[in-house]
Design a protein that fits this description.
Largest sheet: 2 strands, antiparallel
Helix content: 55-70%
Protein name: DUF4020 domain-containing protein
Mean pLDDT: 89
Strand content: under 5%
Low-confidence stretches: 188-192, 425-429
Number of strands: 4
Distance between the termini: 38 Å
Shape: flat
Radius of gyration: 37 Å
Structural class: mainly alpha
Strand order of the largest sheet: 1-2
Number of helices: 51
């Protein structure tokens, strides 16, 4: 075969040199190796032609593709098929040259690197040297995207492993190192802390590890294990968290207690764990036992834990020496508890007699002593030993008896004995000076426990135990199944506010988790306890957390957590508190309302967010729900119902005047959010106070009330009538302090008012007002809302849609911009059209050119496909109109339907279909052209 271009080929090359716009067409068409030198000699491979990112007007970047890489990929397949080593080296040289130029000139283009990685995969291995792969690292570290290259290179690496030659294994190991390259970046929360991250995306890396890490160990053996071990050490050194591995990784195997599944630490740990597991199971070089001994002797706690876990999983392959290393007495501590606990739990019966005795002696040597005197503490010691004996208590009478003795001393069986830090709530806690089990032992001397909690001062050193960890661990203590804290609440009245907050929040967690607890016994205790807490003057005199101290809460947090608990207790649930307790709760809430002041509001505040998150707002929400709870449980018009309302009304009357009396806006906001509930409590009171709720137009109270009512999602007729009377709608739409979201909700109310026949489409209607204002954002909201309710009250909505459509088309026709997002949104309404007539076709023709300005082109063409079943000729006209601004279709099914329906019209239809296809040819839309040709052939 000639290595020279033919005259025709040279002519084609010259044409694309003269007219670069033709180059993508040529690069897709040719794939012969003979073009390579011609392209290179013509300068088409020049590194500076690799396009750099383009910054757009909205401060994002577009990454253009380099068309000639299409040729490189397709032609490189022939390199592989023909094993052309000489030509392959030219390709390699080009890849390195372009990459080096890009790095020197700080030019990034992940699309090019992705194509290059495909080319690299096709190059015969005989042509590649290890240093040729250095450029892979640059590709993998592109700052805009790494997914595509990572996917390509990792797939190639797996193929190289399968080839299993010395060279391919060398390349695969090199690529594994590059794919899992560890980077140190400045910490997200502290400029003094660094975090380890992967170039691999966390999701992609995690998926790769799940699917392939085991096979890496099986096939690459010690090469993979040693590399992955080194990666894990790098991560641990950067994160500086090895000594806390049992906190951030509760269990080396997968477990629901492991909450961080996709960060770099966990991913690399799993990579090392599974590679080691695969290696030990395969043990092809008979060196696995030696490697395990090396790892168990490692200075890194995390690596030692992994090795102990693998030893337990592969026990039948272990030498006696390895087992002896695992069960060393110094391993029986909380650092290694989960892995060693399960090692002896699963394999104790298989241990030799002297090894079993060694385990028992190691457990019995555990002790807890008084910090200052060194005196042995019997119950804490027994509790610590019982955790370990729980692993082997069912092995024989000896171990069973030893476990029972410990339990008899402590009076409680260990809960989750295989975990040193078990989080029943599922949220990781900060490092605590004491574990929850150690706090539990201290419950026997409650005065000492309270003194310790209140007086604890953290050291403040990085990665050292702190007050935040202690507060969170105290919450775990409250959550214990034994309910020790909740059964003896009165003795904890003197705790500092951050601990009181945890008592109420823990109770709320138990309630939310539907934990099995004696609720009827516990509710009176917690409600009585709350009454005592909030009646203590010392509680209200406690200092607020106003500086940048520990994030542990103050008296305001206590108020909020108690009020959330009250809300939970008012639910219609068998775990709700008894009605006879409501008076006590009501009195406590009223006490809080008299003590707790409101938050600061201003014209630009998110009133709802402030109200529902402020302590006073939370109290008001709880107060409203308490009233509803009581009223739900009596007859609607009963005297008891009137008596209940009479008990609440004075407080509501007082709160209604707070904006003027105290500058507090929580109640106004809460009231309008729950206005439907207030209609249930007392319709007369609610209707009579509508004017008082909203206040003066454009006042701060008015804005808070408007924001709150926008969250109701329901048109209240009485409020709607009041708005129309006071002309609120135009005022709120023009108010710059109100967000578009709030205004959008009132536009929805305007639509609902029409659908409920409370408004007509006349000159005085709200919808006519919106048409008159001609604001695209407002009208777009109308269009979107009426489309969003297309499955509800279809006929009513359709009447409104058809009434508004001509006016909106007129407005669109008046616009002179190149893009018309309103027209694109209006295209959504095509779903309402069931037949094409003069009007409906005119409407669709008006929006057709702009259907994808707001990305609605796909849905519009789906509707056109539906209509083409009966109106193919009209749909063809509309389709042609859309093509004045072509757009990409990711699903060609609608176009196929339309094509077929047009062609079925006979010769006229075939001519129209051909005309449409010609437009797609001009637009270089090959998929649609291919679709048309297939239909014609069929």
């Amino acid at each position: 075969m000639s290595n020279e271009l033919s005259a025709k080929q040279r002519s084609a090359l010259q044409r694309v040199i003269d007219d670069p716009a033709l180059q993508p067409w040529l690069f897709k068409k040719v794939d012969s190796l003979i073009w390579f030198d011609a392209f290179k000699d013509s300068g088409l491979f020049s590194p500076e032609l690799n396009p750099k990112p383009r910054e757009t007007a909205d401060n994002t970047f577009q990454i253009p593709s380099w068309p000639i890489t299409e040729y490189l990929v397709s032609s490189s397949l022939k390199l592989r098929d023909e094993n052309d080593v000489e030509m392959a080296r030219k390709y390699l040289s080009l890849l390195k040259e372009v990459t080096q130029y890009a790095m020197v000139n700080e030019r990034s283009n992940y699309r090019t690197w992705w194509q290059f990685s495909k080319v690299l995969r096709n190059i015969p291995l005989e042509a590649i040297k290890l240093d040729d792969l250095d450029c892979v690292s640059d590709w993998l570290n592109d700052k805009f995207d790494r997914y595509l290259v990572n996917k390509e290179i990792s797939d190639w690496m797996l193929k190289l492993i399968e080839i299993n030659t010395e060279q391919s294994v060398s390349f695969a190991t090199f690529l594994l190192d590059k794919i899992f390259e560890i980077h140190s970046v400045e910490g997200r929360y502290s400029d003094k802390k660094y975090e380890a991250v992967l170039g691999f995306g966390d999701y992609q890396a995690g998926k790769f590890v799940d699917e392939n890490a085991l096979a890496l160990g099986e096939k690459l053996g010690l090469l993979a294990v040693n590399l992955c071990e080194q990666k894990l050490k790098e991560v641990l050194d950067i994160n500086r968290n090895d000594k806390w591995s049992n906190v951030w990784r509760n269990s080396i195997p997968e477990h629901k207690q492991n909450r961080r599944h996709n960060d770099t630490g966990d991913i690399v740990l799993k990579l090392f764990r599974d590679a080691l597991l695969g290696y030990v199971k395969q043990d092809s070089d008979n060196k696995a036992n030696g490697k395990l001994i090396e790892l168990i002797s490692n200075d890194y706690q995390t690596i030692k834990r992994v090795a102990i876990y693998i030893a337990g999983e592969c026990f039948e392959k272990l030498d006696k020496e390895v087992v002896n290393f695992v069960i060393q007495p110094n391993h029986f501590n909380d650092k290694y508890r989960h892995e060693l606990w399960h090692f002896i739990h699963k394999n104790f019966s298989s241990l030799q007699a002297e090894q079993q005795q060694s385990v028992i002696e190691a457990i019995e040597s555990l002790s807890v002593t008084e910090e200052h005197t060194g005196v042995l503490l019997c119950k804490p010691t027994a509790y610590k030993q019982s955790n370990w004996f729980a692993a082997i208590k069912d092995e024989n009478r000896v171990t069973q008896e030893k476990y029972r003795v410990c339990v008899d001393i402590t009076g409680v069986e260990p809960d989750h004995p295989d975990f040193s830090c078990y989080m029943s709530g599922g949220v990781a806690v900060d490092v605590s000076p004491l574990s929850v089990s150690e706090l539990a032992v201290m419950l026997e001397d409650i005065d000492s426990l309270i003194h310790f909690l209140n007086e604890y001062k953290e050291v403040g050193h990085f990665n050292e135990p702190g007050i935040e960890g202690l507060v969170n661990t105290f919450e775990e203590l409250v959550l214990l199944d034994s309910c020790e804290i909740l059964n003896n609440l009165d003795v904890f009245i003197d705790l500092k506010p951050h601990y009181l907050h945890k008592i109420f929040s823990a109770y709320s967690k138990l309630w939310a988790d539907k934990a099995l607890r004696p609720w009827n016994e516990l509710w009176p205790k917690i409600i009585h306890f709350a009454g005592k807490v909030f009646n203590e003057a010392s509680f209200w005199d406690s200092v607020d957390n106003v500086d940048s101290g520990p994030f542990i809460g103050d008296k305001h947090w206590v108020v909020s957590s108690y009020c959330r608990l009250v809300e939970a207790g008012c639910e219609n649930d068998e775990r709700a508190f008894e009605l006879e307790l409501t008076d006590d709760v009501k009195n406590t809430l009223e006490l809080i309302l008299n003590k707790e002041s409101g938050e600061d509001f201003n014209d630009n505040s998110d009133a709802v967010s402030i109200a529902i998150n402020s302590p006073r707002g939370r109290c008001l929400e709880a107060y409203v729900k308490l009233a509803l709870y009581q009223c739900r449980n009596v007859g609607k018009d009963s005297e008891e119902r009137k008596r209940i309302w009479a008990g609440y009304q004075p407080t509501f009357d007082n709160e209604l005047g707070k904006p003027h009396a105290a500058g507090e806006y929580e109640f106004i906001t809460i009231l309008l959010m729950y206005v439907r509930n207030f209609f249930y409590l007392s319709k007369n009171w609610t209707v009579q106070n509508i004017e008082s709720m909203f206040g003066e137009k454009k006042s701060l109270q008015w804005r808070c009330a408007l924001q709150a009512y926008s969250h109701v999602g329901w048109l209240i007729p009485e409020i709607h009538a009041y708005f129309k009377e006071k002309n609120f709608y135009p005022a709120l739409l023009d108010d710059e302090s109100l967000s578009d979201t709030v205004k959008g909700r009132y536009i929805e109310y305007a639509c609902i008012a029409y659908l409920q026949k409370r408004d007509q489409l006349d000159d005085k209607s709200l919808l006519r007002l919106l048409l008159f204002r001609q604001k695209e954002s407002e009208l777009s909201k109308v269009v979107w809302f009426l489309w969003s309710i297309r499955d509800q009250n279809v006929e009513k909505t359709k009447v409104l849609v058809f009434a508004l459509w001509p006016d909106l088309v007129d407005l669109i026709n008046q616009q002179d911009s190149n893009t018309k997002p309103l027209a694109s949104k209006l295209a959504l309404w095509a779903e309402y059209i069931e037949e094409l007539n003069v009007d409906t076709k005119t409407w669709l023709m008006a929006v057709a050119p702009y259907i994808n300005d707001d990305h609605n082109g796909m849905s519009f063409m789906q509707e056109m496909a539906r209509l083409s079943e009966g109106y193919a000729s009209d749909v063809a006209d509309i389709w042609i109109k859309t093509l004045s601004k072509p757009f990409y279709m990711y699903d060609l099914d609608p176009l196929e339907t339309i094509f077929k329906n047009i062609i079925s019209l006979g010769q006229v239809g075939q001519a129209v279909a051909r005309e449409i296809a010609d437009i797609y040819i001009e637009n270089n839309d090959e998929p649609v052209v291919a679709l048309y040709r297939r239909i014609i052939r069929e």
